[in-house]
Design a protein that fits this description.
alpha/beta; Rossmann fold; 2 domains; six-stranded parallel β-sheet
């Protein structure tokens, strides 16, 4: 199929890295791995950080102009066979695809669409109306987590939906080493910004302070506007226990993971966290919280340990347990590598997308 791909929050070509951009890129590559011709239809961002009517109107007008441009382009050339929208939600609705898909009689598809009744306030109500309409129009809404699926069904009981587990490009980790499982070299990879990321950094620092009677070091990869706040959060810990690498090229991260033995990140508010899959692909067990979509990417008691949300003592206990049980770390690491490479790779995602398209698109495929 010839697929027009659109990510209203952040285009796959956006210069600023994030988990959202990464997942958009992963979807494009998985669709291509499944044999489809994929092009980014538009780079227009419909993201609205605030509930601002003037901002929404400006974005809506920009979407009208972009729709007009794409309509003219498709009339002069062959239109795509489908429109694929990644992550429409109340802050970034798709204001282009549903109209064009209807006009050109092509299937409209979403991935990781989300709808929340509690967001129906102010201008967000208009945005949510667009999201709900798109969900109802979609030939299929591809859900990456069970939590998202439940939310869609609650908002639109008759909507068509299918599950696709989060995935990554595991080939980057095929040649990583096994590290020294007897050592306790922890690693985390996360942007340093306010909100959930900062909450996770605070929780991690407090948990590690409860495990100072054990031998360990922590390597931190990441940077951002809250760099000084993150360093302050860890200031009570011995400086020799911490290695700050700052922002690194994504191509360098597999080598750092290969030198580590355990991946730590509490994951406050994580939708799911592709970094967890990257760590597991490198053969690292994970310690995270049992929250949001994290259980979709970490198997508790098999590829890592998941602790109750907000329970710092439990998180610290999990760290101490993994330090004290190198054989468990080794087994979890082997399980983690097998899980990521066998079940959460491009080939696995491509096979699942094929099955979804065959089920919901029929002759359109």
């Amino acid at each position: 199929m010839k697929i027009a791909f659109y990510a209203p929050l952040k285009s796959p070509d956006h210069p600023v890295p994030s988990g959202d951009r990464l997942m958009a890129r992963m979807l494009v590559e998985a669709l291509r791995a499944a044999g489809h011709e994929v092009s980014v239809a538009s780079a227009l961002r419909s993201f609205m950080a605030d509930d601002d009517e003037a901002q929404f109107e400006a974005i809506r007008q920009a979407a009208v102009d972009e729709t007009r441009r794409l309509r003219a382009l498709w009339l002069s050339q062959t239109p795509p066979d489908a429109w694929f929208c990644y992550h429409p939600y109340y802050k970034a609705p798709d204001l282009i695809g549903p109209q064009l898909a209807a006009e050109f009689a092509i299937p409209y598809l979403t991935a990781e669409a989300s709808y929340s009744l509690r967001r129906n306030q102010g201008t967000r109500t208009q945005a949510q109306r667009h999201v709900l309409s798109a969900i109802e129009q979609a030939a299929v809404n591809i859900c990456l987590t069970e939590r998202d699926r439940r939310g869609l069904v609650e908002a639109a009981p008759a909507c068509r939906h299918a599950m696709l587990a989060p995935f990554i490009d595991t080939s980057r980790y095929a040649s990583t080493g096994d590290g020294d499982v007897e050592a306790c070299r922890f690693v985390t990879v996360a942007m340093m910004r306010s909100g959930d990321k900062m909450a996770s950094y605070h929780m991690l620092a407090r948990s590690l302070s409860l495990a100072l009677d054990r031998p360990w070091t922590l390597t931190v990869i990441g940077d951002g506007p809250c760099r000084h706040d993150v360093h302050d959060a860890f200031s009570a810990l011995p400086a020799e226990r911490l290695v700050w690498l700052g922002e690194r090229d994504p191509r360098d991260i597999p080598a750092v993971l290969a030198e580590s033995t355990l991946y730590l990140w509490p994951g406050c508010g994580e939708a799911y966290g592709l970094a967890y899959l990257e760590a597991q692909a490198a053969g690292l067990p994970v310690i995270a919280q049992r929250t949001a979509g994290v259980p979709e990417v970490v198997r508790d008691g098999e590829t890592g340990l998941l602790t109750p949300e907000g329970d710092i003592a439990a998180y610290a206990d999990a760290i101490r347990r993994m330090i004290d049980q190198p054989a468990t770390r080794r087994q979890f690491g082997e399980n983690a590598r097998r899980f990521a490479h066998d079940e959460r790779s491009f080939p696995a995602a491509a096979r699942r997308l094929d099955a979804i398209f065959a089920q919901f698109l029929g002759d359109a495929k």
